[in-house]
Every structure is written in structure tokens, then in C-alpha cells.
Design a protein that fits this description.
It is built from 7 helices and 8 strands; from the N terminus they run αααβαβαββαβαβββ. It has helices at 3-8, 10-13, 38-44, 64-69, 81-94, 133-144, 183-196; strands at residues 52-56, 73-78, 102-106, 119-124, 149-166, 199-201, 205-211, 216-228. Strand 1 (52-56), helix 4 (64-69) and strand 2 form a beta-alpha-beta unit. The chain is globular. Bound molecules: S-adenosylmethionine.
């Protein structure tokens, strides 16, 4: 990442280091971000085994690991080496011989993707909904462009709206720079992005995520998927 871009995007990129998980306290193969949503995994079953999927902001592999286990070859793009190291440790520990490949790539998703080939599917989970709409448009454009996503390819986006995250004393754990989408705004932004960037949007899935331990978390999750025209 060059210095110019680091400065340009500071307003929202700064959120992440404040919530860096402590992987040493987490069992290998488990993710600090919880269990993957089965609805999201299910959407990828539309793709044949051995398909190539790009997981943008894929972290320690909450999705990449089960998708590799389903036979897909996963390229996991992330800005953070600690997450990618943990991804590789997890992959060695949990994947069977028949699983697809996992390829970690250290990249900032706000900069050009360094790939010279296309993918059959692209996933963004646990990351895009922190970004304000105008900047999200740029990140979405990178994931959806023809150079990255094949015609007929699948783009899946997990988008948390109406977010609340409080510690046990009721203090907000939401970073100052994080953008909070209401449900209505999130749905509207997603519909606009899929259409603008040449994807046929299929009916979105809605799921409320709520727990109180180890902290209070609530969000109304929108899971969208669309097909590149
Ligand atoms: C909440 S985690 C979600 C990880 C994974 N997608 C999941 O659903 O479990 C957010 C991830 O986004 C990554 N990330 C944050 N900013 C990024 C950027 N500019 N480019 C690429 N990855 C980024 C973080 O390093 C982290 O791994």
C-alpha cells in the first residue's frame, strides 16, 4: 500500500486495528468472528466444485475454510498478515486431502487487485458494511469488474445493518470511524451497487444476529447475491 492511499482512506480504514483479535486465546480452526452463516455457504453451492472464489477481507478463513472443504479453490485477500498467518495455520489443521486450495494474498481492498485471471465467485463478509457508501462503491467496483468476476459469476455480500456492539458495562465498542447503515439504507445501497456494476440481483436474505456473550451484539444482516451479466 502506498503512502498516498493510506492517507486518503484513513477516515474509515482506521477502525480495524482497534479490534484486532487475540488469536493466541482462540482454539485453532475457530474464528473470533463466530460461525459462518450457513445461508451464505449455501449460495456458493450453485458453483461447481473446483470453482475459483475470491474472498475479499477474508481474514482467518471463517468462510474460506468451509468453502475449501466444499471443494472450491479459495483466494483470500486481506490487508492484515496476522489474519493470513492464522488462516494458514487453520487450513493445515482442519482441511482434508480432498479440499480445494487456499491462497492467501496480502492486499488492501481499496487498491487495485493484483490478479491476472478471473474468478467464478467473489465474497465480501464482515468488512464492506463499515465503509461509507461513496467509498464502498469503489471497493464494490473492484470486486465486480469483468477483469475479476467472470460473466455468469456469483457475487455474495454479507452486510450488517442497524449494528450495536456494547461491552458488559454498556459502553459502545463501535469504532469512531465505522459507518452504521440502517437496514433501509443498506438495502438501497446494495441494490444500487449490484445494478450499477452489471449484476442481476437475486432476492436478498435477511437474518437477525443477536447475542449477549461475550458482549452485546445486534445486527440485521442482509445477505445479497447476484450474477454478473
Ligand atoms: C471482521 S473481519 C471478517 C473476516 C472474514 N471475512 C469473516 O467473515 O470472518 C474483517 C477483515 O477485513 C480485513 N480488512 C480490513 N480492512 C481491509 C482492507 N482495506 N483490505 C482488505 N482487508 C481488510 C481485516 O484484516 C479482517 O480480516
Amino acid at each position: 500500500m502506498n503512502e498516498k492511499n493510506r492517507k486518503r482512506n484513513l477516515s474509515w480504514k482506521d477502525w480495524y486495528p482497534s479490534v484486532m483479535p487475540d488469536f493466541s486465546t482462540i482454539e485453532v480452526g475457530k474464528s473470533p468472528y463466530g460461525e459462518p452463516n450457513l445461508e451464505t455457504l449455501e449460495l456458493f453451492r450453485k458453483l461447481p466444485r473446483k470453482s475459483d472464489i475470491l474472498d475479499v477481507g477474508g481474514g482467518d478463513g471463517r468462510y474460506a475454510l468451509p468453502l475449501a472443504q466444499m471443494g472450491y479453490n479459495m483466494t483470500v485477500l486481506d490487508i492484515d498478515m496476522l489474519h493470513l498467518n492464522r488462516l494458514q495455520i487453520n487450513a493445515q489443521a482442519v482441511l482434508s486431502n480432498t479440499a480445494g486450495k487456499i491462497t492467501p494474498v496480502l492486499v488492501d481492498a481499496t487498491e487495485d487487485f493484483p490478479f491476472h485471471r478471473q474468478f467464478d465467485g467473489v465474497l465480501n463478509a464482515g468488512f464492506g458494511y463499515l465503509i461509507p457508501p461513496d467509498q464502498l462503491d469503489l471497493v464494490f467496483a473492484r470486486m465486480a469488474r469483468m477483469r475479476i468476476l467472470k460473466s455468469g459469476g456469483l457475487l455474495v455480500f454479507e452486510f450488517a445493518t442497524n449494528r450495536e456492539r456494547l461491552d458488559i458495562d454498556g459502553k459502545s465498542l463501535i469504532g469512531k470511524q465505522e459507518y452504521i447503515y440502517t437496514y433501509e439504507e443498506g438495502l438501497h445501497v446494495l441494490q444500487t451497487l449490484y445494478t450499477k456494476h452489471g449484476l442481476r440481483l437475486l432476492p436478498p436474505l435477511i437474518k437477525t444476529i443477536h447475542f449477549e456473550v461475550p458482549y452485546h451484539l445486534h445486527n440485521d444482516l442482509i445477505i445479497t447475491h447476484g450474477i454478473k451479466r
